[in-house]
Write a structure and sequence with these properties.
The chain is α+β, with helices and mostly antiparallel strands. The chain is elongated, with a radius of gyration of 39 Å.
Length: about 850
């Protein structure tokens, strides 16, 4: 309705056996032996203006032109049957070309002595060897600027191919094989078609007919638009090679247009159903124009959005679909950012959109064409009858009526109109999903039509799919929404890579390297699969295998055990135990500072869809900061301090804050585990962690100076831990509680940081002494912790039956003679509380 739909033609992959067009996904590439030919395209003897060819030296250009008028451009092709469809020869401005003269060749050779041939310099040796030329010489280089102004004759000019063959610059041309020139038949190849269409304006200005011939019919036979070859078969009904190649090669030989022929075994497209070769053939198709000014949007709006969007969309009248799409891309958030450049390049360079397919199934293009004028019928009454029939009977209603009388009458005479029976490209189907999901005013009232954008609503629409969908679903959705709504259907587009096996190979049943998600879920649980995805860099291809799953399970177990330990420790915690921040010990203040840091990272990472950063941050925090450091230190406080201990209550308060933060942070990833953990602590029939938001972590907890101090303390702790590991390995001690190390610190900053800190508590030893200085020569030292030396002295005294610390004070309390005074106070308080409770 907005004037961008039109009928044209384009080459499609066609199965002669199945009589149907094929999509790329329906094609397999198998070994196939093709006939190959090297063909001369003689240059037109009418010289172009010299001024257009001057490349630094006018005299050289004139001399080159005189020689070129007797020369031929040489092409190489593996599809001789497409020569009747040739309309151009493509070259590359990046390739160096030269004019060569044959100086010696066998008497019966196709390439004769004195022949002048233009070939890519890099490929000359290979071409002349194939042509059995025994000697040749390079006459001169041919600048690409000169090639662009030349035209050739078709090699079969005398058989009725009396048209000019221009030389066109193309990015698809290389000097890796062939001749450096590409035979261009716009009706038989995607790149050929694209370069021909892109050159249309220039060709028309040069007086060259831009019509693309229909040289091959649906039965694989050459048509009357291939003079002298009509009826010759490219492929027969059984998928076997026909006689078209031989006929074309004979005609080229008779015309003295060949210099060589051969055969090549290579990968060639086959239908995945019939397993037979397919061909590219030009067929009538329906297109949506990318660069045609749009007439009006309002008539194209759906009923759900017309009321909201018609007025706003009228502002876009006169712009092209390409312009609207490129503007729309800028308003979308692309994750990763490289996705914007990718789809932007595709929209900038794409030709008009072919939306038709010739198949016996699919959604029909419900269009009538006036047989006399060729115009598409646009009538609200006809459209209403089509919509009504589809609602009642489905898409088959269109095919059931052969001439369309039920839709045209009583307003139009069916005999005057052609009923189109092509179907829509499936990408058009997928691209329309926004129209019947996001614009349902009952289900998505704030997203209906253009209202969402105009009113600045907060609702966000995200499209998520693999990176290949920049060419597929994202692409078609963008064009359809811009073409009918004036804006993209999405606000955010997130793309991911594909799953490979552990060795980076695509998964294949035949190889036996497939890891099915169902199997992982059955054996390890859904959260393992989710954790693997979150940990991976989804912007690239993802690897999956048994070893990777095993590693993920091990990581999951550590996270789960951390949460499990917190649940057990928090069991006795009540609000009465909560300690104010300002009354907490330094270690607790440090952990709350870390909560502030982690909270900022996690929130930002989630907003940026950087799940691997969420995963890495939480794993580091839970395993290193909590399990291996804070929990390790505070186990003694939690287990052995008196119930009234401020240190114990402070620890429980920190654990409470940490538990709520951690459980909600991991909930989007480990949704089942987080739910299980949350309900274990806060049991409720209606409760769920997924109804929670991330807890607000007070900014006042941030203390960078304290963090820097404890980084120094932890550095010293590393040296002590290293010394004790050697002692355990040598079996001089069992646990770290059997030690009372002497720590020598020569570094003043490290020494000052440890002042006033109970290093025995931090290092989990029974005692510890900190002294300034280098320490004795035989003390333990770590290269990565300079300025710290440790003497791992054994602790003296008796082992406490409760805390297992070794102390000289064990036995000093007569009521509890087998424990330290601290543990005696804890037991006394515990028993008093039990007695008071009855």
């Amino acid at each position: 309705a907005n004037g961008t739909l039109y009928r044209g033609s384009k080459p499609v992959m066609w199965s002669v056996v199945e009589k149907t067009a094929l999509a790329e996904a329906e094609v397999e590439y198998e070994d196939y032996t093709s006939d190959t030919i090297w063909v001369k395209f003689p240059l037109d003897k009418n010289k172009p203006p010299v001024d257009l060819l001057v490349d630094g030296n006018k005299e050289n250009a004139i001399a080159a032109l005189d020689e070129l008028m007797s020369a031929s451009v040489v092409i190489w092709t593996t599809t001789p049957w497409t020569i009747p469809g040739n309309r151009a020869v493509s070259f590359s401005p990046k390739v160096k070309y030269a004019l060569f003269r044959v100086t010696e060749s066998p008497a019966d050779n196709w390439a004769k002595k004195s022949d002048l041939l233009i070939i890519a310099e890099k490929l000359a040796d290979a071409v002349f060897k194939q042509a059995r030329v025994t000697s040749y010489e390079k006459i001169r280089e041919i600048p690409s600027g000169m090639l662009a102004q030349l035209v050739c004759h078709h090699p079969l000019q005398k058989l009725g191919y009396e048209f000019k063959v221009p030389l066109l610059a193309g990015d698809h041309v290389t000097d890796e094989d062939g001749t450096g020139f590409v035979h261009t038949a716009p009706g038989h190849g995607r790149e050929d078609f694209d370069i021909w269409m892109a050159s249309g304006k220039m060709l028309a200005e040069r007086g060259i007919d831009t019509h693309i011939p229909f040289t091959v019919g649906p039965d694989g036979a050459l048509t009357k638009e291939a003079p002298c070859f009509e009826g010759k078969r490219v492929i027969d009904d059984k998928g076997n090679k026909g006689d078209a190649n031989d006929a074309v090669i004979k005609a080229l030989t008779d015309a003295n247009a060949l210099i060589a022929r051969g055969r090549l075994k290579h990968q060639y497209p086959h239908s995945w159903r019939s397993k037979k070769p397919v061909i590219y053939r030009n067929t009538p198709q329906w297109f949506i124009a990318m660069d045609r000014p749009i007439n009006s949007f309002s008539v194209a709006l759906s009923a759900a959005s017309a009321g909201e969007g018609a007025e706003a969309l009228s502002n876009y009248q006169g712009e092209t679909l390409r312009e609207l799409a490129l503007d729309g891309i800028k308003s979308v958030r692309w994750v990763p950012q490289s996705g914007e450049n990718r789809i932007n390049g595709m929209i900038q360079n794409r030709p008009d959109w072919v939306i038709s397919r010739q198949r016996a199934w699919g959604v029909p293009i419900t269009v009538f064409v006036n047989k006399e004028t060729g115009e598409t019928l646009l009538d609200d009454r006809v459209n209403a009858r089509i919509v009504d029939a589809f609602k009642k009977e489905g898409a088959d209603a269109w095919f059931a009526d052969k001439d369309g009388a039920r839709f045209l009458k009583p307003d139009f005479e069916p005999a005057k109109f052609e009923k189109v029976n092509d179907i829509l490209d499936v990408w058009f189907d997928s691209g329309s999903t926004h129209a019947f999901t996001l614009e349902d005013p009952k289900q998505f009232p704030s997203l209906a039509g253009i209202k969402r954008k105009r009113d600045g609503g907060k609702d966000t629409v995200m499209y998520l799919e693999g990176s290949d969908q920049h060419r597929g679903w994202f692409h078609s959705s963008l064009l359809e929404a811009c073409g009918t709504r004036g804006r993209p259907p999405y606000d955010v587009v997130l793309t991911h890579g594909f799953v490979l096996d552990e060795n980076g190979r695509p998964m294949s049943k035949s190889v036996g390297n497939v890891v099915a998600p169902q199997t992982v879920i059955k054996d390890s649980g859904a959260d393992i699969l989710r954790l693997w995805v979150a940990a991976a860099d989804y912007s690239d291809d993802l690897r999956l295998g048994q070893e990777i799953i095993k590693t993920t399970v091990d990581t999951y177990r550590k996270l789960r055990n951390t949460l499990r330990w917190m649940l057990g420790s928090l069991h006795p915690f009540t609000e009465a135990d909560r300690v104010a921040f300002e009354k907490m010990p330094e270690l607790e203040e440090l952990m709350l500072h870390r909560l502030v840091e982690v909270d900022a990272i996690v929130r930002k990472a989630y907003i940026e869809f950087d799940y691997k950063r969420v995963f890495a941050t939480l794993v580091q925090f839970m395993t290193v900061d909590l399990s291996a450091f804070y929990f390790d230190i505070r186990k003694d406080t939690l287990y052995c301090d008196p119930i009234s201990s401020v240190a114990r209550k402070s620890c429980l308060t920190v654990l409470d804050h940490t538990f709520k933060s951690l459980t909600t942070w991991i909930a989007p990833i480990l949704c089942f585990t987080a739910e299980e953990v949350w309900l274990a602590r806060f049991p409720s029939e209606n409760g769920s962690v997924h109804n929670e938001t991330f807890p607000e972590v007070p900014a006042s907890w941030r203390n960078d100076a304290l963090s820097e101090k404890w980084k120094k303390i932890r550095t010293v702790r590393r040296a002590v831990t290293g010394a004790l590991e050697i002692e355990r390995a040598q079996k001089r001690i069992g646990s770290s509680l059997e030690a009372a190390p002497v720590i020598y610190i020569a570094d003043k900053e490290l020494f000052d940081a440890c002042k006033g800190i109970d290093m025995a508590e931090v290092c989990i030893t029974s005692d510890a002494t900190v002294e300034a200085g280098e320490g004795p020569a035989d003390a333990f030292r770590m290269p990565e912790v300079p300025g710290v030396a440790v003497q791992p002295v054994r602790a003296e005294g008796t082992k406490c039956a409760r805390s297992w610390k070794i102390s000289k004070l064990v036995g000093s309390d007569k009521e509890y003679p087998d424990v330290t005074p601290r543990d005696a106070d804890a037991l006394r308080e515990y028993h008093a509380a039990r007695k008071a409770a009855g």
